[in-house]
Amino acid sequence: MKLYYHPVSTVSRPILLLAEEAGIAMDLEVVDLFTGAHLKPQFSAINPNRQVPLLDDDGFILSEGSAILKYLADKADVATYPKALQARARVNERMDWFNTGLYRDLGYGVIYPQCLPTYKRPDQRVQAAILAWGREKSRAWLQILDSHLLGKHAYVCGDELTIADYFGACILSLGEVVRLDYSAWPNVERWLGTMSARPSWAKVNESFYAHFVAPFKDVQFEGLR
Q1: Strands (E), 31-97
Q2: d(CA 108, CA 174)
Q3: Which of 82, 95, 96, 127 has a CA that sits 20 to 30 A from residue 167's CA?
Q4: What's the CA gap between 116 and 139, in Å, rounded?
Q5: Distance set, CA 120 to CA 76, 80, 105, 178 (Å)
Q6: Is 169 among the domain residues?
Q7: What is the pLDDT of residues 85-97, one digit of tens each?
């Protein structure tokens, strides 16, 4: 199997976490997002979406980080993607929740417009409106995550680690780029602390911290308040 990825990619990192913790062997090929390699004909011929990650399993081509995560978890028969119908449905639900709700508003409404030139609006009024909308929506999602999805549970699907935790934690870790303060949501902070303490976290996220977090350490950003 070959995984086309980039080590700072928000949706590549959960796959690397799973692979590291479950011992899944893959050939890793970096597609350099910083130089625009994903936009070049060589890669777009494989993935017309021109995005990473992309999995090639002996000619079976699969895109979308969430789908790849589930596929690999099934292929490796890991406990973090339970087989019981309702338990699996809960994992799928949480992953969809992160992907279509929180990530959209937190990532694309608050974080990326502040640190990636391709997402920053040239009109300052439009930029301010995008950030204001993203902040409001993100706070609402974080409250749901804190009070209802996590609550007294250790993980987002209950008291057992699942691939939904890999997926969600990597999305929330984006907040470190613009130094978001999650202290208003103590269960979220607790859960992120648990995930970042896992033995695989530092290794998998080394490039993320070095090449996406560190370069912005002296830049002033708007937070969630």
Answers
A1: 54-57, 60-63
A2: 11
A3: 127
A4: 21
A5: 40, 37, 14, 14
A6: yes
A7: 999 999 999 999 9
